[in-house]
Amino acid sequence: MFRIGIALISLAVFVLILSCGAEVPPGPEIIAERMLEAAQAGEYDRMRSYMSTEMHAQFNDAMLDEIEIVSFSIDEIDYSRDSTEAEIEYTITVREIASGETDTDDDDMDLELNSNGEWIIIDM
Fold first, then answer.
1. What dihedral do alpha carbons 35, 68, 103, 99 form, nearest 10°?
2. Is the pLDDT of residue 4 over 60?
3. What pLDDT, in 10s, does the model give residues 31-69?
4. Which of 21, 27, 74, 110 is 20 to 30 Å from the Cα of 5, by its Cα?
């Protein structure tokens, strides 16, 4: 009975330590999803916050205002051997506002862990 009591106390302390720990940064799939959600909502500054500064120049607001993201899905994630880089394959459906035409593409984006241990999009 004594051993069971010690085991339960140890388990409770372990759970308490885990619940009080630092927040774990979101993984690459969450970052990709948040970036695409921001783009879909037209929140371009938030969209860029998930990207490296080098990526910012690839997207200007005027270009983004000409399209509407109808839907997207994250399809697959591949990690590098050391798990510091990830490639995300996704499917996106975009509608061109002027013509009303829609197009669905399979594409990928590359992410890496930055110096703060957070995932950031480095290429699309």
1. -160
2. no
3. 999 999 999 999 999 999 999 999 988 888 888 899 999
4. 21
- The residues near 29 (Cβ < 8 Å, ≥ 6 apart) are 74, 77, 88
Cα distance between residue 77 and residue 108, in whole Å: 9
For 5-29, the pLDDT digits (tens) are: 444 454 444 444 445 555 677 999 9
Question: Is 118 a domain residue?
Answer: yes
Closest by CA position to 121, among listed 35, 44, 24, 59: 35
Residue pair 77/88 in contact (Cβ under 8 Å)? The answer is: yes
Query: CATH number of the domain that 67 lies in?
Result: 3.10.450.50
Q: How many domains does the chain have?
A: 1
Radius of gyration, CA atoms only, the chain: 20
- Look at residue 114 and tell me if it is in a domain: yes
